[in-house]
Amino acid sequence: MSEKIKAKGSCLCGSVKFTVQELSTEVGLCHCAMCRKWGGGPMFAVDGGSDVSFEGQEHITYFDSSPWANRAFCSKCGANLFYQLKGKDQHMFSVGLFEDQSPFQLHHQIFIDKKPGFYHFGNETENMTEAEVFAKYAPSS
């Protein structure tokens, strides 16, 4: 079970600041093509849930990236902030935005079958393929 902590973070320029009341310490990597295109590599994400307070919310821009998700970034510096499933108030934050990195542990990797061959992480993690991710998390129609 993931430990939950209270944590503060911000974008690169500091225009967007946030406090997460119950942030997971389990870091997940996403190797899907969209995450790699969005950040230049896999997304290192932590689940911030819904109890999040923002300062500078007027600088958060949302991009409708797929039928099921939005991605948010700072309109001033361009820093990637979070990924959010549509219809859910759940924030999957980029882990590098948080002030204290010491509590985090690499826990799982998704879209592992989409990971390009030019990088490899030696940590032992739980891994899910694209098909496994969609079977577990895709909205039912």
Structure notes:
With 141 residues, the chain is mainly beta. The protein has a single domain, classed as Metal Binding Protein, Guanine Nucleotide Exchange Factor, Chain A (Beta Complex), CATH 2.170.150.70. Helices cover 11% and strands 43% of the residues. The protein has 2 helices and 11 strands. The strands form 2 sheets. It has an 8-stranded mixed beta sheet with strand order 6-7-8-9-4-3-10-11. A 3-stranded antiparallel beta sheet has the order 1-2-5, with no helix packed on it. The chain is globular and about 35 Å long. It starts with a strand and ends with a helix.
Short description:
The strands form two sheets. The chain has an eight-stranded mixed β-sheet with strand order 6-7-8-9-4-3-10-11. Strands 1-2-5 form a three-stranded antiparallel β-sheet, with no helix packed on it.
Strand numbers in spatial order across the main sheet? 6-7-8-9-4-3-10-11
Question: Roughly what percent helix?
Answer: 10-25%
Strand content: 35-45%
CATH class: Mainly Beta
Question: What does the secondary structure layout of this molecule look like, with pairings?
Answer:
Layout: E1 4-10, E2 17-24, E3 26-30, H1 33-39, E4 43-49, E5 52-55, E6 60-64, E7 69-74, E8 80-85, E9 91-94, E10 105-110, E11 126-128, H2 130-137
Parallel strand pairs: 3-10, 10-11
Antiparallel strand pairs: 1-2, 2-5, 3-4, 4-9, 6-7, 7-8, 8-9
